[in-house]
Amino acid sequence: MRRARAPARLLLVPVLWAQLLCGSVWGSELTFELPDNAKQCFYEDIIVGTKCTLEFQVVTGGHYDVDCRLEDPDGTVLYKEMKKQYDSFTFTAAKNGTYKFCFSNEFSTFTHKTVYFDFQVGDDPPLFPNENRVTALTQMESACVSIHEALKSVIDYQTHFRLREAQGRSRAEDLNTRVAFWSIGEAFILLVVSISQVVLLRSFFSDKKTTTTRVGS
């Protein structure tokens, strides 16, 4: 997968390319920072007939929304959503070439976003070369298939909860910052009120100087 040059600063640079059990499934998973008024595009070479899935989620920033757009090699828009927090889109490549998908934060003026996406290319290959045979699988093969499916579910759950943990941490840090500023403001107001009360009370008990005017005869 190729990434377009843009001013976005990547938080997690590694792009994970993995082939599952020597099969033909390729996947790229990335978490990056998308500044305000910025757009970040990625490119993927796909063979015709390949099933692909794009999943994304805004982890931190603003209202947790971002624009997403997916185009085929001819520039035809396959998927377009505005201000989405998270979504998933599955399609089958109709032609060979380079597909482009972009995330845009151009509608935001001040808020940076942290975006996670997972782009899977191809179907999961069978665990065993003869898994689709007419005869039944052995008990050992069936157990391996069940464990394999369970492990994939565990990976999905781990990713989901990792993203939720990141969102929760971001919100907690934002709330902590607001509480800290509110506490500082309350302390300042309390100090001003205390000083004002002391000055006011001292004015009540201070000796007032009286002026005497003599009238000459």
Automatic annotation (TrEMBL):
Record-level GO BP terms: protein transport
Entry similarity comment: Belongs to the EMP24/GP25L family.
Stated name of the protein: Transmembrane emp24 domain-containing protein 7
CC per GO annotation: COPI-coated vesicle membrane; endoplasmic reticulum membrane; endoplasmic reticulum-Golgi intermediate compartment membrane; ER to Golgi transport vesicle membrane; Golgi apparatus
Signal peptide: 1-27
Keyword list, A-Z: Cytoplasmic vesicle, Endoplasmic reticulum, Glycoprotein, Golgi apparatus, Membrane, Protein transport, Signal, Transmembrane, Transmembrane helix, Transport
Stored InterPro entries: Emp24-like, GOLD_dom, GOLD_dom_sf
Residues passing through the membrane, by range: 179-201
PANTHER family per UniProt: TRANSMEMBRANE EMP24 DOMAIN-CONTAINING PROTEIN
Stored Pfam families: EMP24_GP25L (PF01105)
Stretches assigned to the GOLD domain: 39-121
Location in or out of the cell: Cytoplasmic vesicle, COPI-coated vesicle membrane; Cytoplasmic vesicle, COPII-coated vesicle membrane; Endoplasmic reticulum membrane; Endoplasmic reticulum-Golgi intermediate compartment membrane
Function: Potential role in vesicular protein trafficking, mainly in the early secretory pathway. Appears to play a role in the biosynthesis of secreted cargo including processing and post-translational modifications.
Membrane topology (UniProt): Single-pass type I membrane protein
